[in-house]
Structure formats: structure tokens, C-alpha cells
Amino acid sequence: MSYSMGSLPAEIVRSIVSQIDSNDTLCNVARTCHALYDTSIPFLYDHIALYDQEGGTGCHEFEELRPLASLLLRRPDLARLVHHFTMRDAPSTGFLTEETLRKGEPVELLEVDDVFKDRIKAASHNEEEEKQWLEHMTWPDHGDATLALLLPALPKLESLDLMIMHGCTYFEKMMQRAGMREKPFDKEPGFLALTDIMHTWYDEKYGMGVEYVGMFMRLPFIRRIFGHRIGSDDGFDGEADKTLAALDTASSTVSHIELKDCKLHARDLANMLRAPAALKTFIYEVGTGHLSYCSMDFRATVSALAPQVYHLENLWLDFEYSYRPVWDDESDDTTPIASFTQFENLKVLKVAIVFVFGDEVTSSLSQDWKQCQLQGLTDKFPRSLVTLHLLHCEDNFELVLLALENMLAHKERDVPRLSKLVFQGAILKAKEWWDRIMWITQLSKTKGVEMVTVTATEGTSSYNGAVERGWGMDKDISWAEGVNILNRYPPDKIVEWQYEMQHDLPLVLKSM
User: Fold this and answer.
1) Cα-to-chain-centroid distance, residue 22
2) Most buried residue, 6, 58, 272, 508, by most Cβ within 10 Å?
3) How far apart are CA 78 and CA 70, in angstroms?
4) Rounded distance, CA 385 to CA 237, Å?
């Protein structure tokens, strides 16, 4: 007996259609009949993803952006179906047209639909702005002018994944006005469903500014902000970013801030971290090189979290994997973080050991110095701590293992709730410490702590086994793949120790 799609229950048809991951296929299904159209269209418009056809390496125009915006502005029923929006790479800002016009050469200008004219009139604050916006809409390479009209027209938008560069004037205006409840958001607020934003950049040498983070933090129901390849302005005595400095204390609904391969000056961090009313998770992976030439201050980084001491539950302080930072600038202060005990509700801490012991931990120092550091992991953490990850332990295996033994000896006094300890480093190159690590692992069990050893795989982002990193404390949050493989890393492996003597090697590596 044969069955047609029309004879199947609606739930089964919907389940089948939900498995289709090709927009072309969804379009074909939608064209077959009215019933399948109604079933397919919500999946087709649920996540709109635009990718630059030239490879995503700069500011280019997206051919689909303008007709898509025109359609969704005319069809609010379709606009309501959009829950997620992704753009790789940055929308263009009319640079080529501007240069061509300056040279007096002809440009083939575009017609501006009435729907765009109406939206521009409603959004503009004066006639001059309206006139300029309309002019830029005629330019074939001004995606910024179009994007700024499209995004506020998506009332159910939940997540926004963008590569945005300096100079996206219209996008900036609309974000600022949405946050400040200014026209066109004065009577009806915008972005009421938007909770998650990713702001990434493609350049492997230079970073993007922090100003957009400040704009995003003003949005009415923002919950999670993710930043990649973002840096403060160069210089050590320059002014703080104005968008961050303008944020009021405890004014933002954001509860999760994640900055990977980023580098911010202490003043920008302080302004950013005082704004959340209750920040639960803060992840900061320090980037290096030309990303930003601002100074780095270990203790000031933690001090910036002072407004969140009673709220913070998850903290991750690390540095970018591929290129280990060299804290050798006279403006950097690598004095180790004195304590995390002020974070009374902290449950999970992931921290590179350089933040705990200072940059001297990587040097060949005297035995007296090492003896002084043995207390480096005692009286350091809050009693609320449940999970502790010590990262880049290869910086000084000897010191970390001795300090760990000392910490476990005082577990009931210092960290009575600790139940999981993750020891991460280049284990495969440290055979002389394998026996010691195995012994500490056994000692942990006697203290009621599960100790997991993780080895960092050798290689960089170009390594054949590199994979796109996840986001969040558990790396279980996914965003669109980064450009130029800048978020691809060799995966870490879990080490399972083999205690039976018949094994040639005392360890087995398993995927995490």
C-alpha cells in the first residue's frame, strides 16, 4: 500500500520537513502544494543566513540582502517567521560608489522602492538624514543602509550573528535608538524578542572595536553577548570607549558575556561589567598581537567584576591558544590575582595558571620562590566552588602539582563543595610528570573529587584536525563558522590513566 504526503498526519509531515537542511529543497517542497507550503515556509524563514560570495574576507555586498529586505518589509507575515539571522561577512558601506562619484565616473544607481522610502521616513530624525539615507539606498554597494531597515522589521528575532565593521552608520543608529527608545522606537520598542548576539570579525591581524557591545547591552531583553576578535583602542592613556562609558550601573539585562580572542583595557572592562544587573557568566580569552595594543592588568580584570560579586556563577579567564601572550610591555601588570573568594556564589572557575601565579610561573625560578607559591591554590577560591579547571599547566607542571596537593590537603576548609577538578596542559610532552599526575588523581578520589586530565593537542588553527570551537562554559553553544578559520582549534583529548603495569603506555586518549 502506498501513501501520499497528504495522507500522513500533520505532525509526521512536519517532522519530515524539519529534517531538511537545504533551503533549495525546502523551496521545492513548498512549491508542491498548499499544505506543504504552509508546513515548509516556517522552516525556510526560521533562520536567514547570508554569506558573501567572494569568500568573506572584507566589506562586500550581499546580492540577496536588498530583495530579501524588500520582501520582508512588504510581507510582515513572513517577517514574523524569522527567529535567527546570520551575516558573513560585513555589510558594505558604499566605499566603492563614493570613490567612483568622487572621480566623476558614472555609477548605475538603483531605484528605491516605496517600502524603503516609508521606512526611512519613519526612522529619520530630520530631513537631512532622510535625504542622505535615500541617496545611499540608490548606491549598489551600501548594504548597511538596507540592513538597518530590515532588522527592526523582524519582530520575533531571537538571535543575531553578525560580522560588523566600523562605519556601519545606519546599523549603529538603529541599535542606539532601539536601546535609547528614540524614534522610531519611542512609541513601540524594538527587538523585544532578541536575546542573543554574536559580534565577530574576520581579520587575523587586527581586531574590531568594542563600541557595538555597548550598544547591544542597552537592548531591552538581551541575555547573552558573544564577542570574537574585539579590542579596545590602542594606547594606554587614551579615552574609554564612549558607548561603554555611557552605560548606567545595573541597567542591562545581559547575564552572559563571552569574549574570545579579545583584548580590552581595564577601563573598558570596568564600564562593561558594571552595566549588567546580574551577570551570571563571564568568559574572557585574552587575544594577542595587533588585535589591540592596550595594556593588560590581571588584578584589574578581576576588580572590574566587583559589581557582580554576588551574582557571578561561572568565570573563565584564559588566553588565546595559538599564540601564547608575552607579557613584556612595561604597561602590563601581571601580578597574580590575589583571590577569587569574593565571588560568594561562584560554582565553576576555569583559569589559566598564569593568572593565579603570575607571569613568572613560566620562568626557571629559584626553589625558594616555588616554596613561596605552594600556597597559591589555598585560600584562593570561594567555598561555593564546585568545579575547577586549571588551564595551560605546562607553564609549570612542578609548581601546579605541588600546589594542587597542598590544596587537596585543605579541601574541607577551603573548598568543601569541590567535586570536579580538570587539569589541562601539554601532557604528552611531560612524561616525567605522568606518575605524579596519576598519584594526584588517586589522591583526589580520596577527597571526593573527580580529577580529569586533559591534554592540549599540538598544532594551530591550520592543523588538519582543527575543529570549530563551541561557545559557552561547556562549549555547547553554536554560532556560524568563523571566517579565515580564526575560531578553529585542535581538539583537546581526555587522558584516561592505565594503572596496570602490562600497558606499554600509562594513558589512553579519548575525545571530549
Assistant:
1) 26
2) 272
3) 12
4) 36
| Secondary structure, 3-state, 270-283 | HHHHCCECCCCEEE
Which DSSP symbol is given to 209? -
Length of the chain: 512
* Tens-level pLDDT at each residue, the chain (512 residues): 444 566 677 788 788 877 877 778 888 887 888 778 888 888 889 999 988 755 444 445 578 899 999 999 999 999 999 999 999 877 888 878 888 888 888 888 889 999 999 999 999 999 999 999 999 999 988 899 999 999 999 999 999 999 888 889 999 999 999 999 999 999 999 999 999 999 998 777 777 889 999 999 999 999 999 999 998 887 655 678 899 999 999 999 999 999 999 999 899 999 999 999 999 999 999 987 677 778 888 999 999 999 999 999 999 999 886 655 555 566 788 888 989 999 999 999 999 999 998 877 655 555 655 566 666 788 899 999 999 999 999 888 888 998 999 999 999 999 999 999 999 998 888 889 999 999 999 999 999 999 999 997 655 555 567 888 899 999 999 998 877 677 888 888 898 887 665 555 666 777 76
Give the orientation angle of helix 127-137 with respect to helix 114-123, to 10 degrees: 150
Nearest to 197 by CA among 141, 284, 259: 259
Q: Does residue 352 contact residue 321 with C-beta atoms inside 8 Å?
A: no
Q: Report how far residue 332's alpha carbon sits from residue 335's, in angstroms, rounded to the nearest whole number.
A: 9
Grid coordinates standing for 248?
Answer: 548606567
Query: To the nearest 5 percent, what fractions of the chain are helix, strand and coil?
Result: 40, 20, 45
Rounded to whole angstroms, the Cα distance separating 461 from 483 reads: 12
Separation between Cα atoms, residue 313 and residue 294, nearest integer Å? 28
Q: How far apart are the first and last CA of the chain?
A: 46
* Of 193, 211, 180, nearest in space to 151 by CA: 193
| Residue among 381, 234, 359 at smallest CA distance from 297 | 359
447 by Cβ neighbours in 10 Å (0-12 / 13-18 / 19+) ranks as middle
Neighbours of 84 (CB within 10 A): 18
Pairing status of strand 488-489 against strand 467-468 = antiparallel
The three state secondary structure string of 210-250 is CHHHHHHHCCCCCCEEEEECEECCCCCCCCCCHHHHCCCCC
Q: What is the largest CA-CA distance in the chain?
A: 84
Task: Give the count of beta carbons closer than 10 Å to the beta carbon of residue 421.
Answer: 23
C-alpha cell at 321: 591558544
How far apart CA 275 and CA 214 sit, in angstroms, is 9
Strand partners, 479: none
Residue 332 falls in which region: left (phi positive, over 0), alpha (psi -120 to 50) or beta: beta
Q: Which residues are CB-contacts of 402 (< 8 A; sequence separation ≥ 6)?
A: 370, 374
